[in-house]
Amino acid sequence: MTKHPEPVSGTLLSISDVERVFGGERKLFGGQTPAVHAVQSVSLDVRKGETLGVVGESGCGKSTLARLIVGLDRPTGGTIHFDGTDLSELAKADRRALARKVQYVFQDPVASLNPRKTIRTILEAPLKHLTELKSQGREQRLEELLEAVNLAPEFLERYPHEFSGGQAQRIGIARALAAGPELIVLDEPVSALDVSVQAQVLNLLDDLKDRFGLTYVFISHDLSVVESVSDRVAVMYFGRLAELGPARDVFAKPLHPYTDLLMRSAPAPGRHELLAEDASAELPDPYNPPLGCAFAARCAYKTDKCLAGKPSPSEATGGQADHFAACYHPLASA
Amino acid sequence: MTDATMTAPVKAKKKPAGRPSTLALLFNNTLATVGLVILALICLTALAAPLLPLPDPDVTAPANRLMPVFSDGHLLGTDHLGRDLLSRLIWGTRVSLAVGLSATVIAAFFGSLLGLVAGYAGGRVDTLIMRGIDMVMAFPYILLALAIVAVLGPGLLNALYAIALVNIPFFARNIRGITLGLSRREFVDAARLAGKSPPQILFIEILPNVLPVIVITMSTTVGWMVLETAGLSFLGLGAQPPQADLGSMLGEGRKILFTAPHVSIIPGLMIFALVMSINLLGDGIRDILDPRLRAGSLTRPVARTKVIRDPKDIPPPSLEPGVLDVRDMRTEFQIGGSVYKAVGGVDLHLKKGECIGIIGESGSGKSVTAMSVMGLVPTPPGRIVGGAAYLNGEDLFGASDKRVRDLRGGSVAYVFQDPLSTLHPLFTVGDQLIEAIQAHQPLSGSEAKEKAIELLSLVRIPNAPERLSAYPHELSGGMRQRVCIAMALANDANVLIADEPTTALDVTVQSQILTLMNGLRRERDAAILFITHDFGVVSALCDRVAVMYAGRIVETGVTAEVLANPQHPYTAKLIDCVPVLGQPERRTDAIEGRPPVVNNLPDGCAFADRCPRVQTACRVGLIELEMANETRGVSCLFPMNKELRDDQAS
Amino acid sequence: MGAYIAKRLLAAIPVLFGLTIIVFLIMAMIPGDPATAILGSYATPENVAKLNKDLGLDKTLFEQYVIWIGNLFKGDLGRSYTLNRPVLDEVLERFTATLILAGTALLLCSILGLLAGVVSAVRQYGLADKAITLLVLVGISRPSFWLGLLLILIFAVNLRLFPASGMYAIYGGGDLKDLLHHLALPAFTLSVVATGVIARLTRTAMLEVLRQDYIRTARAKGLSERKVIYKHAFKSALVSIVPVIGIQAGFVIGGAVYIETVFQWPGIGSMLVKAISTRDLLLVQGGVLVVASAYVLFNLAADVVQTMLDPRLR
Given 1.10.3720.10, 1.10.10.60, 3.40.50.720, 1.20.58.220, which CATH number is that of B22-53+67-296? Predict the structure, then answer.
């Protein structure tokens, strides 16, 4: 397995060869429970101040990756470094130290708020546990936070069920901001929202990033949303990186046939013809993964080489220096 | 960031000042109130026992034995030892109540604690605790209590321990289930990220959410516990003579059942009154605290949406030919005291082989429109209050139930959003397909099977004959949706109504399904009514599009025209606020504010509050959908691209 | 399916094993000296020591358990000192009687409960629903033994329709008709509470299922309402009711303790009550063990039925 190229300076988060296996525990009477590799040999860096988009379809491992980054889950292999410190070590030693630096915004905004707590209690929790602020300081910080996400101060005394999805997501964002993190992982932050509200939240996120100098990892299944917010994009398929590169290059000149398929399948206003595969084109069985490239079964360019072994994440390179794809037969060169 | 600060008053929508307190809700429930009153009376009497002028319950007077009810000085008579029954009854109730309540509290405390810890900790702790619980539950309930009493020896206190102990698993299981569900919720992850420690999360975040369940479980088990203690005493294993509790009184009375039945009937009646009142109250408490039962959400929907429309006011079908012709359809939901006008007068005209997209955000009424056509809106709370839907000239809202049933799945077929929940999980794909075929065609089993295989091949499912015996959960999302489409095509429908059929699917699967539907419609010349929230999907499939907002169509036209020249400001904004693939530089333009709630629609245009072009005239009267030509129309007083519109009109 | 049943049976073995440990420990924990209990308080210390040795009570708990379980496999559960006959013989005889009573009651409550629940759900808020709801509430709010007493008073003493007690008539009985005649009152009494519980749960389960998306699909297909309710909805509801019936079996068997006492049914429940009050511990031990094992197996059967209904559980 070749390593990802040397980290570029200004790297905030460095993920190297990370793996997360579910199952595979020893059973009582010998044997093992079936194991699934949710994330496998993923290496990538997140640079300070950028938005890294992670895109892929359901089951590709993007949400697992997100949970690994914020420490809600531990990798079963590989390491994640944040600013030079090993994240799993940090999570073990001091959960709170990690939570001060890396925060998370959830997909379902309403479910991420405890239905029996007021917004004040919810927002105060990170201030109490993660900062040194005294009650006066906290009060001031609460006001700042609400102002930052465009919510009226009256909201503080209300309960989550009184909010719409968009408002709830603003509260979720405010909570993530509370302790002043450097990195925020956004896991499908607008998928549960209506399109008109989605744009509000995307614009808010954009604004906050500039204002607080944040770094985002933005996870989504929606290519157009990822394209519009990301500096760089990672495309995931079946637990692995398929392609990684600057957003513009990845979307304009995709190297991996999967990226190309995704883009040509996505409906867009004014587009009449969508690329559609055969019905037999399905994800491989996670309990019985293929030996070679996981996409080979669906790929028009596959050769025996693809079936025999997995391409390394940087098998193919694009026009730009930091554009890679795990493919033996990348499109640009074909 | 152009978004204006959102202010709280928007929220003044639903409830009148403050929500009714739990107690007020309880008093609304007559049965629960009756239970509460009886229980309060019994409790007060029992508490006041030492103060009441009662004879000593344990003093025997053999001369006065077995006096009948209403005897002098003994209102309820005496038992076989001449003791006053009324006095024993009241003192006995005191004992039974105390034991029942204490047993409940003990069981609830330890059971809930075990359940909370097992559910939250998971892994080995969970396995260990739950295996232990399973072991205890492997004994029939009363048998275990008997065994415990056998160990500890008969006695009231021992009976209490036994009853409490055997009820612990019941609480533990219940609470563990709830806790497990809650622990996987996102707010628990959020609390961890906010730096809370596991005990803080368990007792501060999770416990408040579990508490109602504990209270429900307690309120529904107290009665049971009272019965159980009475049972043990009845067998002579609980209260020991001379102490009276209700059960032991019954046990003593049993021996003289034939000579003096009142000695056993009276304490039995008391137990009955006590437990009944507790159960009535318990059910009332459960109904209030259980969100599923609140607001009658467990009401059974009937087979067909209720139609209440003025027979004099049924719009005639339009003159142009078409398969489906919806005229001024209005559908409402009656929830509590308010009426939600989900669909407020919608016209749709579907020609043979044509595909119309209805696009809108959640709450715009697009799905309700689709469901109303064949009466699939649940009643209660929904009902169709006006308009008509003509299928090849036949008024669907006026048709008989039998006729509607024949048309459903026959001429008009549906494809729904989530293919996992819309297929029956307990029947094979083949069973469900064959059922759909046989509901409308007199085919034998093998013929229908033949046809089912044909249908599966039609929707391009590989290995169709084998897939017949697959259960829905064994198929992928895309395959499931193909099965749903096959089912919709089973009887050569003229009209296909598809309610967001691709929303739950991945993008590559979505394109497969859209392509399939497009091909099928051309092959079979079926008309499609396609509900979606995505202009991209509309572009890929629909000839015409209708944009819905707050229950009404605000703009309609040929898809390309609407996309290129939206006339309603809402349509224009809706197109602009979505990022488009391949145009990363495009600034998405958010729509401020939120759609109005349909139980409180403003006068005039529903979009006025969010519209950048709003004028005073917009807020007055009803604004109709003005049709410029056969296909193009907009309901706006000041449409965009007006010149273009005038051109079209001329 | 066969493999699944075999797997479940295998998994039941540790449970049954655990059961023997618990039963054994409960009896070992009993305060007081069984030898004294058997020989009476006037026994000489020598006799007590001798009996203790005969009973194996001078060995460690573990050794005692091994001996006990060894005997168990040989079908030897000891000898009841009050009845002076092998515990196993007595227990099996009594258990057959209980099985007849509890089995009938269980059948009765399953049929009546499901029926009442479905009718209640289908006619929600109608007269039938209200009547059933009230009956159920009354049914689960009074002690079953009291109902038994009332029924005896009415049907046996006053109307003389049914016998008040026993399993067979003393003179000239013994056939099936006689058994059913004796069975009617106790079986009905025993079934009432479980019927109520099952009816309630069936109603809720049906109402919940009827709101599912796949019921809407069934209607959209043009199926008749009868098919929608009795085929599509009922099957789903049954999946959640079957385990409840399994649990109710435990309550019915337990309830038999009261009913057998009231109706003097020669079952294992009345035997246990007597054995506890006379401190015939070996009899208690044997009785509890047999009943609990039967209950485990019954729940296993309920699990298997549930799995047969729901392919997702396989």
Answer: 1.10.3720.10
